[in-house]
Amino acid sequence: MADSIYETFPAEWQISSPELFVETHTSRIIMVRLADGTPAVVKALNETGMQEELRGAHYLDWHDGHGSIRLLAEKGNLLLLEYAGSRTLLDHLNAHGDDAATAISVDVLLKLLGNNGKGKSFAPDLRPLREQYASLFKKAEIDRKQGDASIFVEAAGIADRLLGNPADVQPLHGDVHHENILLGARGWLVIDPKGLLGDPMYDAANMFYNPVERQDLRASDQRVATMALTFSRAFNRDIRTILGYAMSHAALSASWHTEDENFEEAGRSLDVARAAQRVMASLG
C-alpha cells in the first residue's frame, strides 16, 4: 500500500501511531505521537534527502526552538521533529491580509535574528550564500558575453556587492515563505529550512517573492516598497540592502527556472525582480 509505514523507529524515541502524511523527492513525512501523546513528525530521508536536508537539520539544532521547530532527535536517516501546527501564514494572509502576515513574519525573523546559538559553532556544511547564487552568476556571465545588459547582469552585480560586504553572518533558513511559517502550541515557527550561511536579509528577501501564486502582490511596486520599509525599520538595516537582496533573489529564482527551461515561471520571477528594481530606482 502507498501509505504503508515500513520505517523502524528507535525504541528510545517512544513514539506511536505512525501515519504517513506525504512523500516528497527527499523524504517521507510521518505523523507520530510522543510518549506523552504530543504530536510530532518523523522525516525519513532518502538518498537525495541525506545529501540535501541534513544542513537544514543542523540549522534547527543551532536555533534550538528559537523561532523554529525543534530537532528532537536524529538517528541515521531519521529526524524526529517538533510538530509546528497546521495553520500556515498563507492561511493568515488569506483571512487577515498581507500587512498582518508581514507583521508576523517580522516577529518570526526577529526571533531568528536574535538567537546566538548559545555559543555553538556553525555547522561546517551550511551552504555559503555565494554558492547559493551560483546559477545567477552563471546566467549573468552568459548574458554578458553575448553583449546583453540583462536584468540578470544587473542583479548579479548587486548580489556580488552584497555578498562581499555581509552583516551579522549566521545560519540562514534559506526558504522563509508563507507556507513554511506555521502556528502551533509555541506560536509561529519556521519549518523545512535549507541550511545556508550568510546575511540574514537573504531570508527576509524571500518574503518579497511570496506567496508564489499571488503575482498581484509579488510584482506590486507598492507592496515591495511597503515591505522594504517595514523590514528596514524592524531589522535596522539599510533599505537598499534589503531591496538588493529582494531583487537578486528573485533573479536567482528566475535563473533556476531558466535552467529548467520553465520560461513562464522565469518571467514571473523577473517581474518580481523588476518591481524591486523600480523601487530601488525611486530612492534616487
Automatic annotation (TrEMBL):
Keywords: Kinase, Transferase. InterPro entries: Kinase-like_dom_sf, NH2Glyco/OHUrea_AB-resist_kin. It holds the Pfam family APH_6_hur. GO terms for biological process: secondary metabolic process. GO terms for molecular function: kinase activity; phosphotransferase activity, alcohol group as acceptor. This is 3'-kinase. It comes from Phyllobacterium myrsinacearum.
